[in-house]
Structures are given as structure tokens and as C-alpha cells.
Specification:
The chain is mainly alpha-helical. It has five helices and no strands. The termini are far apart.
Length: 168
């Protein structure tokens, strides 16, 4: 004997909102005109310079430069990722994530680890190691300190944003 099946489909408001919001891609041109946006672009450009100056040498022979490379590449990739999130205003589509806290943790950790990496980089640069790599390593050390100061600035702005958010 044949059975009768009834299939009911429902649409949740979450999927309806998700499909409606993903159809248009927002772009925040004004972000690059803010000081945090300018600092982020500077971090990307100079961070790229830090790791390419080291990557063009025989850094793998010296473990200290391996650490500097790890920090520089890791935070370069994450900074590009966060720039894309801020430029496309993705943070407005994911309100469950506490973006001010995430930004503060990201910039704070980047500042601390980049500062350590810059010190390691500067203390590892000596003429005795390898004279043809000296200039690249010295330049990478200088730019690592500049990138560290950019992350320090963004940490300050993230803290101000986080603090004003928690006081509300």
C-alpha cells in the first residue's frame, strides 16, 4: 500500500538575511584616509620589505633570522587579511565577533612580537657573520622597528576604540 509523504520546507531569517547581504559587496574608501588605515597600509608595505630583505639572504643558516621571518610573514598575512575585512566592511556582516577586542589583541600581539623580532634582528646583525648579507639584514632591522612603531600606533587606536566600546 502506498504511503503519503508530506515535505515542508521553511526558510530561516538568518539565511534570507545572509543571501540578501552577500549580494552587494560594500567597499569603504574612507578607511584608507584614517590614521589606522594609513598605519595598516604602512605595516603591509614595510612588513613586506622586512621579510623580503631577509628572504633574499641565507637567513636559514641563522635561527634568529628564522624567527624574524616567521613574525614578519605571519603578521604581514594577517594584516592583509584584516585590511580586506575593513575595506569590504565584512565586520558589519558578522556582528557576533567582538571586532574591537579582536583588533586590540591582534595589534597588541603584533606590537609585542614585532618588537622582540626587531630586537633579535638588530642584535643578530654583525659584519662577522656574512659581509654580503650585512646591508640587507641592517635594513631589515631598521624597517622592523618602523613597523613595530606602526603596530604600536594601531594598538593605541584599538585600545581607544575598545575602551569606548566597553564603557557604553
Amino acid at each position: 500500500r502506498p504511503r503519503s509523504h508530506t515535505v515542508t520546507t521553511t526558510s530561516s531569517s538568518f539565511t534570507a538575511n545572509l543571501s540578501a547581504s552577500s549580494s552587494t559587496l560594500a567597499y569603504d574608501r574612507e578607511f584608507l584616509r584614517t590614521l589606522p588605515g594609513l598605519l595598516m597600509v604602512t605595516e603591509i608595505v614595510l612588513g613586506l620589505l622586512v621579510w623580503t630583505l631577509i628572504a633574499g639572504t641565507e637567513y636559514f643558516l641563522y635561527p634568529a633570522f628564522g624567527w624574524v621571518m616567521f613574525v614578519a610573514v605571519f603578521y604581514w598575512v594577517l594584516t592583509v587579511f584584516f585590511l580586506i575585512i575593513y575595506m569590504t566592511m565584512t565586520y558589519t556582516r558578522i556582528p557576533q565577533v567582538p571586532w574591537t577586542t579582536v583588533g586590540l589583541c591582534f595589534n597588541g600581539s603584533a606590537f609585542v612580537l614585532y618588537f622582540i623580532a626587531a630586537i633579535v634582528d638588530a642584535s643578530s646583525v654583525t659584519k662577522e657573520l656574512d659581509s654580503h648579507n650585512y646591508n640587507s639584514w641592517a635594513a631589515s632591522s631598521f624597517f622592523a622597528f618602523v613597523v613595530t612603531s606602526c603596530y604600536a600606533g594601531n594598538t593605541y587606536f584599538s585600545f581607544v576604540s575598545w575602551r569606548s566600546r566597553t564603557l557604553q
